[in-house]
Amino acid sequence: KKMYGYPCHGKPRYKCSNKYARYPLPKNCTRGTVDAGFLDSAIWRAFLRVLDQPEVVTDKINKMSADKRNRQSEFEKEIQKINGELLALKEQEERLLEAYAAKVINLSQLKSQIESVAEKRSTLLSEKKQLETEISTFNPELSFAEAETYFRNVKEKTQNADFELKKKIIG
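Above: the chain's sequence. Below: its structure in token form.
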């Protein structure tokens, strides 16, 4: 449950926000307030324990990266499909021009059909651009050594951190 900080007789405390989250229903949280210093230091200790275990974060990042690679593969297949559809539209446009040249269709029919093809092409190109943008943001896997170095640097900076720096880091 979410908690919020407030001063109580000049001392910082945390209180459950259930009272406000459930309004107008009655609150159902029976917990009292918690000393802010106690809770802040517990959170900080948990954060420092995470810094001692970069492999946990590295594994999670690599799993997320693998999921993203799978999505990237799906996006690449979708781009190939769109390219095929764009090629088919080009061929359709050429057939329309041939039909007009052979006087099978008139100018207004040609314009109408060409507009329809242009709209489809525009939609497909927009989808393709969106997929290519997503693919370009792909990040490679994080190595354990990189994570360990990063965590070591962060831990060094946090050793003598004041409350404001801790607040920025936990954020």
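The beta strands are 3-8, 11-16, 34-35.
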